[in-house]
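hey can u check if this looks right to u? its 227 residues, i copy pasted from the old doc so theres a chance i mangled smth
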Amino acid sequence: MGNKAQPIGLRLGISATWSSRWFDPRHFRRYLKEDIAVRDFLSKRLKTAEVESIIIERSGKKTTVIISTARPGLIIGRGGGGVEELRRHIIDTIKKTSGQDAPNIDTDLRLEVQEVRHGESSAAIVAQQVADQLEKRQPFRRILKRTIEKVSSDPKVHGVKVAVAGRLGGSEMSRREWLSSGRLPLHTLRANIDFAQVHAYTAWGAIGVKVWIYKGEVFKEKEKKEE
């Protein structure tokens, strides 16, 4: 039998990096619980903001939360009030998780919002868009075809695959349907594969959505020249 590996986890340190950028053996358990709680809160709070990634960096006592989104205006709000409100909610989430272990989090937490300009080449954003359309009861075959055409039109994309699984169209039996276009070398470690998995919650149950996007190969010499 064949074994499946998560494309991002397989390429950590090669063409992908970690979403939690810190290492502290003394407070590892507390920091890990805080990261999971913050990501769970932000994924629910910013469901409509098309968030690509949530990166958490820690340096000493300073904590930085970086949110990459295709719709930064929904997060920033008028006059930046949305960022400050979201920061307060993150602080409350960390305090509920760690209690007295995070006494200075009020002053040590920093929140950054970055804009994603090409959302068509982001697997996370594409997967969220597919899930939103499924929740609106649009035909899944039309969604797959339209998504493949939209992503393939980006010149940076060399290949794409979109798969949905569940009670598609309200059928009695669950099944898996997918469409692909271009190349998708999943066994090549230097291939830059962007992968995302989300769930669409419909009247017939949860439908899983997976998106793979191939953006070419990554070479260390090429990265040094670009830097």
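The helical segments are 7-10, 28-45, 72-76, 81-98, 105-108, 123-135, 140-152, 220-226.
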